[in-house]
Amino acid sequence: MTITRRLLGKLTLGLIGASALGGVAFAADMPAPFDKPGDVKIALVRYLSTGDFFQSYLAGVEAQAKALGVDLRVLDSRQDAALQADMVDQAIALGVQGIIIQHGLTESMKEAAQRAVDAGIKVVAFDVNVENDKIPQIEQSDRDLARLALEQAIKDNGESWKAGYVYVAGIAPLDRRDETWKEFKKKYPGINEAAMFGTMDNPIANSVANQARSVVSANPDITVMFAPYDEFAKGVKIAVDEAGLSSSVKIYSADISTSDIAAMREPGSAWAATAATNPAVVGQVSVRALAMLLAGEDPGKSVIVPPTLITQKDLIDNDIKSMEELGAKLPQFAHADVAMPAWMPNPNAK
Amino acid sequence: MSMEQSKTSVTVTNTAQTAPGMSAREIAIKYGFLVLLLGLILFFCISTNGFASPQSAVFILQSVSITGILALGVTATLVVGGFDLSIGSVATTAMMASSYVMVVMGGDALTATLVCILIGIVVGLINGFLIVYMRVPDLLATLGMMFLLVGLQRIPTEGRSIATGMSLPDGTVANGTFSPAFLALGRHRFDLILPNLLPVSVVVLIVLAILIWFFLEYTRFGRMMYAVGSNERAAALAGAPVNSYKISAYVISGVFASIGGILLAARLGRGDIASGNNLLLDSVAAALIGFAVLGAAKPNAFGTAIGALFVGVLLQGLTMMNAPYYTQDFVKGGVLVVALVFTFALSQRKR
Amino acid sequence: MVQEAVFRVDDLRKSFGPVQVLGGVDLELRAGAVTVLMGANGAGKSTLVRIVSGVYDRDAGRITLAGKDFAPSTPAEAIRAGVVTVHQNINDGVVADLDVATNLTLDRLNGKGAPLIFNPRRVRREAKAVADRMGLSIDLSASITDLSLADRQMVAIARAMAHEPKVLILDEPTSSLSSAEADRLFEVVERLRARGVAILYISHRMSDIRRLADTIVSLRDGRITGVFEGPELDYEGAVNAMLGKKVSAGEIVVQTATAPVLKAENLQLAANSRPFSLTLGDGEVVVITGLVGVGKTALAETLFGARQPAGGAMTLDGKAYAPKTTRQAIEKGVFLVAKDRGENGIVPGFNIYENISLPFLKRISNFGVTNRRGERNLARTQIASLGVVCRSERDEMNTLSGGNQQKVMVGRWLTQASRMLILDEPFQGVDIAARRDIAAKLRASANGRATLVFLTELDEAFEIADRILVMSEQTIVGEHRNAGINVDKLLAEIAGQHQMVG
């Protein structure tokens, strides 16, 4: 058995990134400017930051930046669109070589991104379309997420069932997941959407639970709940449990967190499967795509981080109880071979 | 001038004579909202399958139990002429605190509950102190507290939600679990008519509603709180310790909010970071709608409970009819406006 | 004194609804003279000032300024015409958050021709000119909040004077000033008089009046009841005309106290006021009278624990009595019917019986639970014994007339036996019938307690008192038994004559 770097990586998955020393050790083989990584400054300009997803994303960005040995600045606008645009200018003034724009509004970020490009700075954007050919888009494929979950639903329940659907219009990832839902309904006429509901009132799970209670009591014959956002799924699960319908309803969702894993693992849980992209991996891919740009390579117009389907059975069979264990036991979840040229250090390896 | 005077006195006598029967407007003001509520229930029963059932009634109570409890607390501050904007964030802070105690520190249900209630008391005391002794206007003091708590609840976990198995800022993994006793607060059901019908949160709501209603209407402390809210100076000159009453009101509000937070945590089974602003808005709406119930034109516990129920019935019915979420906000707003018109325009004329 | 009047008011009338406030007022102001207007509460002073300063419209009458018709419809118009008013509440005359310079030039920042751009240097220059003209020596960059009340008053007057008025109206300008501060104000007023401004000075303070008055005009019940001029002003006559001496002594049977209830030794209301002693006995009704602002309310609140004395000691039934809070006073049986019932007494959200039971809820309640039946019975007793006109004890307070509201306020404190019942201006805004009812009830129930009533109106005092004490300058200066009273001496004491002796 040859010990490859990949295998070594697998063995040490779950530990946080390479030490700075490790980064320096690799430096000799690296293309410019990463032969002197300490001189490379990059900035992460964030629109959204509160919540597990964004915490985890940031951890991924930090891990990959550390693996490369570059200097990372994090600028957080906390959902202030105008401030986020100003922060791009601030980053330009800081003299960074690369910028990751994380979320934001097309209207406010389009020109700021163009200014950065004009200043000779390499830019990648995650989950925001800045309408610029020079800026690669990092995407977690929401359509794939929805597709994986729905394919599992078809597999489990056949092609004909009565569904409840949780959806709030006007939120970009949910809108993209909704497109897939509509395609599936067209493709499988046996799917009957009995109710559509949803709210973003926080705590979201609590508000959705209240709504789902009404829905299941009005439509006790629903067998599948498609809740393509884990907060929605959590709320639906509470309602289904409270209504005593856990055995007759199955929930399919998108996204995952440690507490979601616990909820899915509960004995008799209605939550059958979820499709998820590891936000930490998305963070790593964002930095890698930027690094490729800086090294003069082309990561492609859009860099898609593929999602993973996680079923209740996977979790129980592998005894997975947390996100860390999920990464360790489902390697496809911990690492994506995207934007991964040979010289790129893997943050999951030592 | 004298003509007018005599006219007025004639009207007065007329009213006096018809007093036992009450005028149509007085009836409308007094019972209008209750009739509206009954009409609404009737409408949903007819137009929606499954609305008319004991389960449905319990769902409605359960869906309003947390906002209802918060609303009862804020009613106490409204009674003393104040306001508490921090209740939503007190509830979410209590939710985070109980999760933290159990999941991270490995505490039991009792510790978690006591810590939450302690938080409610402390926040209430600080609010009261700021308002009474530092003379910060109530809206501003509690607004400040709201922001403070929204930030504070995120500090121990660096903004992560709390769930078993989460990794902590120092890299370790939290292995504690929600104690079953605690989860029972959110999930256990008592038998009533049907087995496993009545959730704990509904029982808590009803008990707290009766308690605060009795306290405000039938004890001298409640009466003095109304006096403080209506004319602080007169209450002080009648020997009332005005400051203590005001601070007590904020403590009541804080404790009720933290109880709401405990139930929220027990239902969700994890500590979700949330500002609680929707909880705040819904509960304030319930309390304000309560002004209009029985033509009280003042904050009152019975009205608040009815107000919460009103919002619950509306949302339940609309959801069952597949109405999208924004129409629900719209309808909620509409009800509030109508209730405020009842309170301020119609019943003012009575005076 | 042959000088022609620059400002003249003829037969001014004003009513609010059925209530006539001004019933034909005639007034003349001469340039370079201070005319003092005296009047008790409710005499119509404020209404007169507000009409002249353009806040209210008049119903009838004529006002001329320098021979021309003067009918301002807004305060700004009155100021432009040359009639400037400095209102009683000092903080109405200044903007607290701005500095002195901006305050002095505030009026130039508004209206036509005001510059668009706020130029601090120009403001400072103009402010300095205004201040110099007035002899004002205040740091122009100071913030108003850092100034003493007197300095704020100076700024308000200086600001008014920046308009170069022909007529200046000062409404109780010394009511919140110390005597040293008042002296500075008087110098300014004298300087303005010398410059030929006609000044209407509204005050009750005899020391102010002695110092400044060229003419005294007494206003009572919306009519001028006396004009006093000449080198030797008749101060007592002015007070007499203002209070309306209608001695009706003899209508009541004067009682003598049986035993002392409250004793105060060397009581001092303020740090620099003269100490006084006081004894109030069981079964007697004692009236303390005096002009507005001589410390009557301060004394009432001190006895009730709402205010702490600066010195001295009190005993109640022989035991030391030093209430720190109103609650302690109530527990010891000392009750206060506060003045301004709307502000200090009535709880508007409560009905009659809830208002009556307010202070004694603890006594009526069982283990904290209120006893509504008990409350309603108490209320019904009071309604019957005071003759409150209402439908039932559940009526809202705002359905009652002023007199009936006051009966409820008095009834509130009669539901429980007291050792001392204090009433501060209980006849304010009360019609004569209700006043008689309340007075009769107080006298009839006087046995078993000491009753102390604070009154400004003398004829009200004569109607109710066994003894009358006179207050002036925060201390008691005279005592009279309400039988064959020496009214001249009483008036002299009220007018502050005692100071000449003391």
UniProtKB/TrEMBL annotation, chain A:
It is found in: Periplasm. Pfam families: Peripla_BP_4. Residues 42-297 form the Periplasmic binding protein domain. Residues 1-27 form the signal peptide. One of its GO terms (cellular component) is outer membrane-bounded periplasmic space. InterPro entries: Bact_Solute-Bind_Prot2 (IPR050555), Peripla_BP_I (IPR028082), SBP_2_dom (IPR025997). Keywords: Signal. One of its GO terms (molecular function) is carbohydrate binding. PANTHER family: ABC TRANSPORTER PERIPLASMIC-BINDING PROTEIN YPHF, D-XYLOSE-BINDING PERIPLASMIC PROTEIN. Belongs to the bacterial solute-binding protein 2 family. This is LacI family transcriptional regulator. It comes from Metarhizobium album. The lineage of its organism: Bacteria, Pseudomonadati, Pseudomonadota, Alphaproteobacteria, Hyphomicrobiales.
Automatic annotation (TrEMBL), chain B:
It is found in: Cell membrane. The chain crosses the membrane at residues 27-46, 58-79, 85-103, 110-133, 139-156, 197-216, 247-266, 278-295, 301-318, 330-347. It comes from the Bacteria. The keyword Membrane applies. The keyword Transmembrane helix applies. GO terms for cellular component: plasma membrane. One of its GO terms (molecular function) is transmembrane transporter activity. It holds the Pfam family BPD_transp_2. Keywords: Cell membrane, Membrane, Transmembrane, Transmembrane helix. InterPro entries: ABC_transp_permease (IPR001851). It is a multi-pass membrane protein. This is Sugar ABC transporter permease. It comes from Metarhizobium album. The lineage of its organism: Bacteria, Pseudomonadati, Pseudomonadota, Alphaproteobacteria, Hyphomicrobiales.
Automatic annotation (TrEMBL), chain C:
It comes from the Bacteria. Gene3D superfamilies: P-loop containing nucleotide triphosphate hydrolases. Keywords: ATP-binding, Membrane, Nucleotide-binding, Repeat, Sugar transport, Transport. Coiled coil: none annotated. InterPro entries: AAA+_ATPase, ABC_carbohydrate_import_ATPase, ABC_transporter-like_ATP-bd, ABC_transporter-like_CS, P-loop_NTPase. PROSITE patterns: ABC_TRANSPORTER_1, ABC_TRANSPORTER_2. Signal peptide: none annotated. The keyword ATP-binding applies. Residues 7-246, 256-498 form the ABC transporter domain. GO terms for molecular function: ATP binding; ATP hydrolysis activity. CDD domains: ABC_Carb_Monos_I (cd03216), ABC_Carb_Monos_II (cd03215). Pfam families: ABC_tran. Belongs to the ABC transporter superfamily. This is Sugar ABC transporter ATP-binding protein. It comes from Metarhizobium album.
